[in-house]
Amino acid sequence: MWHQPKAVWAVAFACVVAFMGIGLVDPILKPIADNLNASPSQVSLLFTSYMAVMGVAMLVTGVVASRIGPKRTLLLGLVIIIAGAGLAGMSDTIGQIVGWRALWGLGNALFIATALATIVNSAQGSVAQAIILYEAALGLGIAVGPLVGGLLGSLSWRGPFFGVSVLMAVAVVVTALLLPSTPRAVRATTLADPFRALAHRGLLGVAITALLYNFGFFTLLAFTPFPLDMSAYGIGLIFFGWGLALAFTSVFVAPRLQRRFGTIRTLWVNLLLMTATLVAMAVWTDHKAVLAGCVVIAGLFIGVNNTLITETVMKASPVERGVASAAYSFVRFSGAALAPWLAGMLGERINAHVPFWVGAGAVLLAAGVLAATRAHLPDIDAPEPEIDELSDHARAVTVGNDS
């Protein structure tokens, strides 16, 4: 799995930097609220605008990539992220930051969906091994993001935004130099393709499962810093531990559990354990040690979920991987977009326990949806061909126009 072409490592490095953006702002949510006189629900819009635009933009990623090629799409996404992060760092109001985070989400959409398909199509080995590599990059980025955000945020809340711009500039250079020109597809993808893909009941069921699970995930990510009420550096360390746990289970634990118990059974039990973790956070919201410990423990379950759900989507859908990724991401990011704002509002208007109860309910419902979807995923654990074989077939239906 680790012996891959330079192009795969170039995209994986850029993925690490891109995924840093998810957790990077976590340690500075409270400092931003304090410095700009914003409420928790207002500050949580940094996640909502980012995820909402990312989800909608996923519908056009395939359209763009099929017309200008994957490499140019990746570079375009990275450049947009640089602009969005830099402009957010120069903002003076919460509304401006929320707006530039939306632009950042557009760039991330163009990059992430294309990056997943590029790694799967360019890597050596099986689809599962390529996805583990992708999830390793995701986990590393999510782990490092809060730590970098905490370190730079302890100097100024603007620091993490400027830090992302600099790191993304490095990612642009690495991607431009190491990723070879990639061919455009013979058939250009349309906006209707992701919606047609969702007609496949297996893909739709997994996407709805991911939507509900992400609701709980982003409730934890966006709201927990407020009841913790710690410094940016302290929050950064806690979520760094969360990210390390996520990275560890996504790469090393998820494949072992999958081989022993099967994909669906592992996911179902994992969702129940995630539900129990959020229930504990709801009950003991006033105990910072419990909250901090539950955040790190949740990372263990989130890592398993991320790897196995992504692999299920890539293997279950009968459509092209880019289209499947776009359709799935559009649905799941809807939950990620709504949760931060709703959690902040419920915490303000009722109490700090309620957001975690709502998050737990959403994840429990996700387990129910997955159980109902199982019948539409009968061959999800069947042996798969090596990526090299799939790539030979892909090359037969693509043209060699450089992107």
UniProtKB/TrEMBL annotation:
Residues 7-378 form the Major facilitator superfamily (MFS) profile domain. Coiled coil: none annotated. It holds the Pfam family MFS_1. It is a multi-pass membrane protein. It is found in: Cell membrane. PROSITE patterns: MFS. GO terms for cellular component: plasma membrane. InterPro entries: MFS (IPR011701), MFS_dom (IPR020846), MFS_trans_sf (IPR036259), Tet-R_TetA/multi-R_MdtG-like (IPR001958), YfmO-like (IPR053200). The keyword Transmembrane helix applies. Its main location: membrane. The keyword Transmembrane helix applies. The chain crosses the membrane at residues 7-25, 45-66, 73-90, 102-120, 132-155, 161-181, 202-226, 232-254, 266-284, 290-310, 322-342, 354-372. Keywords: Membrane, Transmembrane, Transmembrane helix. It comes from the Bacteria. One of its GO terms (molecular function) is transmembrane transporter activity. Gene3D superfamilies: MFS general substrate transporter like domains. PANTHER family: MULTIDRUG EFFLUX PROTEIN YFMO. This is Multidrug efflux protein YfmO. It comes from Mycolicibacterium vanbaalenii (Mycobacterium vanbaalenii).
